[in-house]
Amino acid sequence: MTTPQPGSAPAPPPVCPRHPDRVAYVRCQRCGRPTCPECQRPAAVGIQCVDCVREAAQQTRPARTAFGGRVTGGRPVVTLTLIALCVASYLAQLAVPGWTEALAFAPVLGESEPWRFLTAAFLHSTGGGIGIAHIAFNMIALWSVGPFLEASLGRWRYLALYLLSAVGGSVAYLLLSSPADLSWYTYLVGASGAVFGLFGAVLVVLRRVGRSAGGIIGVLVINGVLGFVLPGVAWQAHLGGAVVGAALGAAFAYAPRERRLPVAVGSCVAAGVLLVGAVLVSYGTL
């Protein structure tokens, strides 16, 4: 007589390692582990789990632009942020008493309140139609070249270029002023120094990639002439911003491929040191 033998217990259903309470019959094509619908990611072939996708992303080198910046895609976040800050500051100038006086740059105030060298670039004239034209022109100019430079140089290079050019405009205004002149006590406001820095940089970048820069040269020449013809235009800030922007643009564009990052960082640090040194020497010789 034969005695029936008990069969083996059925195997438990596979569960997702990240969610043990969920049954998962789909397996990751890379590691072979079960993965629930929440952890599944479409791959070129089959499905991968979220852990394998993250690991692959960490091992993949980020795409770089021709000048070493990280390819980000999407909207020009830095340019839009700069425009938003300028517009918000302009509205604050209209609504908040003393906003302009607290942030505008004047050589007589720069030594004791050095933040004005930068904050003045986020202010604009508020005198009727002139004020609206002032901020409108600068924001249109920023939008016309900013996204191209942001995409070409990468976000942090582009932001450093903008901010250092803005400071360069204020420093040039200081260097070309004198306590004996009215300009020493006159407020400087506007993003023109920073915008001219972008013009100077895009001029170099376009020449580096072999594209025509005739339109940018024309804009620089026209605005340079207007700076001497129209009253109340700080041509000194335009000049300073353009020089700083062109210098940084050249450093970014012509850096050797294998040394792009140290050259970019070093050029920004050097520009900052030179600007601070120029300020200290200017005030020290008074």
From TrEMBL:
Residues 13-40 form the B box-type domain. This is Rhomboid family intramembrane serine protease. PANTHER family: PRESENILIN-ASSOCIATED RHOMBOID-LIKE PROTEIN, MITOCHONDRIAL, RHOMBOID PROTEASE. It holds the Pfam family zf-B_box. The keyword Transmembrane helix applies. Keywords: Hydrolase, Membrane, Protease, Transmembrane, Transmembrane helix. The chain crosses the membrane at residues 77-95, 115-137, 158-176, 182-206, 213-230, 236-254, 261-283. InterPro entries: Peptidase_S54_rhomboid_dom (IPR022764), Rhomboid-like_sf (IPR035952), Rhomboid_protease_S54 (IPR050925), Znf_B-box (IPR000315). Belongs to the peptidase S54 family. It is a multi-pass membrane protein. One of its GO terms (biological process) is proteolysis. Residues 112-252 form the Peptidase S54 rhomboid domain. GO terms for cellular component: membrane. GO terms for molecular function: serine-type endopeptidase activity; zinc ion binding. It is found in: Membrane. Signal peptide: none annotated. It comes from the Bacteria.
